[in-house]
Amino acid sequence: MKLPQSAWLAGIFTALASAAILPRDDEPSDSVLTPGDVADFPVLGFGDFDNNPSSGKRSTASHCKYIPGDSQWPSNSEWSVLNFFTGGSLVKPDPVGKVCYKGSAYDAARCANVTAEWSNSDLHAGHPTSIMSPLYQGLTCLPQDSSFANHQCTLGGYPIYVVNARNAWDVQAGVNFARNTNIRLVIKNTGHDFAGKSSGSYSLSIRTHMLKDIAVIKNYKSKYYSGPAIKAGSGIQGFELYAAAHAAGLMAVGGEGMTVGWGGGYIQGGGHSPLSSLHGMAADQVLSYEVVLANGCFVTADKDTNSDLFWALRGGGGSAFGVVISITVKAFTERPVTISTFNFTASAADVAKYDSGDYSNDDFWAVIKHYLSLFPEHADQGIYSYWNIFPSYTVKGAQTFTMQPYFAVGKTVAQVNALLQSLVDTASAHGITIHPNTVHYPSFYEGWKAGFPKETVGLYTSQPGSRLFPRANWANDTWDTTFDAIRQVVSASFMIGFNIAPSLTAGGVTEDENAVNPAWRNTVLHAIAGVMWDASIRNFTLIREYQRNFTHGPMQLWRDLTPGSGAYLGEADINEPDWQQAFYGCKYSKLYSIKKKYDLSGVFFAETAVGSEDWKAGNDRLGRLCRV
Ligand SMILES: *[C@@H]1O[C@H](CO)[C@@H](O)[C@H](O)[C@H]1NC(C)=O
Ligand SMILES: *[C@@H]1O[C@H](CO)[C@@H](O)[C@H](O)[C@H]1NC(C)=O
Ligand SMILES: *[C@@H]1O[C@H](CO)[C@@H](O)[C@H](O)[C@H]1NC(C)=O
Ligand SMILES: *[C@@H]1O[C@H](CO)[C@@H](O)[C@H](O)[C@H]1NC(C)=O
Ligand SMILES: *[C@@H]1O[C@H](CO)[C@@H](O)[C@H](O)[C@H]1NC(C)=O
């Protein structure tokens, strides 16, 4: 299956590639690779449906994916073929932090920039390999660590090569190459996933970030839906989706996060949204996908074509079934929005007790209890809210609640203030002043832009975990214990919370219609908490101990209170026990069989993705990927 290994041929490919004979910008964005294109290049040949393990490819010869140093690792001339076929878009990137380390890559100005921008999601979204949760890369090239004695920047869990895909053609070439050479493949869109799914040791990465075509379809018509729709490349990010929709007087269901890669793991994993309490999950809106399969074929998946794949790609998660190239979704006529922001901290009476060692903050928590008690009622009004509780910067022992923002589509300032009045009154009764800053915007787009600050990313001194709290926990007999567990966990930690209710009714779907985690449908609170450790710690034995204690301590408390519920796969604990149930619920067995149908040989892998239990990348997830 190897190319003719003659030196002149390899030389020609290298020359062709470096001369950029295929100009990148002239390449049509709708180019599709066909078997005829690669007839002379077996390393890019198409697979069968991966149902035929006797096809003699390298992929069937080994239990493990190949890594550099293995005799079967692709030769330079094979990499040159991939580079040639992808118009020179194959790159071998340094870690983003390498410019801070002594050596040929050192660059003081860029280092200063990377260091300053570390928590800015644009830095990582704009880099071919960088991810927003560097913990899962192994922390081997943090710019902050370049002054550590004897510390050198290494690749860690970052991919070795990246195809900066411009179209389906490039993606197909990358998938075929990885499958035929039996190397690990990862897919990166922006890198927002909490478990670092868009990274992986010794891998080839396909980057979908540049698939930016977007078109509004004013009158989409099929036998299932008539109305406005948007067709977007999978590289489209939240801010681009919203801007394009707004320009046509529309809004679409996307994340709150400005830079989140809407068309990647976000929508495939379900995708929660400021519009969820009104319109359900992002995945509920999908009319059609264009997808590159594990065998290299470019196909459509909708209700009539590859309908099982279509079902799985609406909630079953990214990096498991194929590489999505484009998505067509329902859009909605834009509506005005009122948003409110406010914050509060401990009462004077709470703070007065600190001297005697009493950090119970009873007033503070009484106000939070009142606010949380409103969640079913507010969600029923179509409200979404996004807020957090963090230790106070200024008063040791206190915590601050920040609402950023309370988001009310179609409501007036007076209506929103009325919804918040009992909270203001309760706070006042507890010696806490809340002044909601409530502002009306004429459109969803303007409200969203004003309401949501850009995400802070790049943290590596905490392990997050999350739980979807169902409405049933608000019943009289369970509410007090539910609140007590939230208070207990968050008093010693932090919380990022969402009042959100993406019910089946809101989404206009039936339970069986797509693969969205059923736990979402009864949820009124998506709660993220985490354990934090000292910023100086790099000892992974110790970090794993913090993680283990968190997973089996505080998070178990939340699991015990919400039996049968789950967690959102994109913002979860990577160590979630029984993650198949937690992230996919009763849909897991069907998802697993669809995985086996479309990707029997395991071309696609990401931690906690469907079928990932069949593989293991070592105890620390940073080693060679092998079948278990
Ligand atoms: C870092 O570089 C980017 C791109 O050149 C620039 O937009 C940004 O302002 C820089 N940031 C800082 C803190 O200098
Ligand atoms: C809380 O709100 C006040 C008034 O709007 C603002 O000045 C302050 O920065 C906010 N504090 C936090 C921690 O967000
Ligand atoms: C729950 O308690 C409230 C007030 O304590 C009461 O009005 C309501 O009827 C109770 N609901 C149920 C279902 O018992
Ligand atoms: C790392 O942490 C573990 C657990 O606390 C400890 O036993 C070990 O000595 C530490 N290793 C180093 C190199 O400090
Ligand atoms: C983990 O929990 C054990 C048992 O409670 C405790 O002894 C240990 O100190 C904890 N480790 C960390 C890193 O918090």
Describe it for me?
- This protein folds into 4 domains: 5-90 and 160-207, no CATH class; 96-145, no CATH class; 214-334, Uridine Diphospho-n-acetylenolpyruvylglucosamine Reductase, domain 3, CATH 3.30.465.10; 337-461 and 468-529, Vanillyl-alcohol Oxidase, Chain A, domain 3 (3-Layer(aba) Sandwich).
- A 7-stranded antiparallel sheet has the order 15-12-14-13-17-18-16.
- The chain has helices at residues 7-18, 76-85, 108-116, 121-125, 168-181, 238-247, 262-268, 276-279, 307-312, 348-352, 362-373, 375-380, 413-429, 444-451, 476-491, 504-507, 540-552, 554-561, 579-584, 588-598, and strands at 90-91, 161-164, 184-188, 203-207, 214-221, 226-233, 250-251, 286-292, 298-301, 323-330, 332-333, 337-344, 384-391, 399-409, 437-441, 462-470, 495-499, 523-532, 615-616, 626-627.
- It has 628 residues and is an alpha+beta fold.
> What is the averaged pLDDT score?
94
CATH topology of the largest domain: Vanillyl-alcohol Oxidase, Chain A, domain 3
- The CATH class designation of the largest domain is Alpha Beta
Radius of gyration: 25 Å
- If helices are DSSP runs of H or I spanning 4 or more residues, what is the number of helices? 20
Q: Would you count the extended β strands for me? A: 20
Bound molecules: 2-acetamido-2-deoxy-beta-D-glucopyranose
Q: What's the number of structural domains?
A: 4
How would you characterize the largest beta sheet?
A: 7 strands, antiparallel
Runs in which pLDDT lies below 50 for 5 or more consecutive residues are 1-9, 17-24
Portion in helices: 25-40%
Strand order of the largest sheet: 15-12-14-13-17-18-16
Shape: globular
Second CATH tier, the architecture of the largest domain: 3-Layer(aba) Sandwich
Protein name: FAD-binding PCMH-type domain-containing protein
Family: Belongs to the oxygen-dependent FAD-linked oxidoreductase family.
GO molecular function: FAD binding; oxidoreductase activity
Keywords: Oxidoreductase, Signal
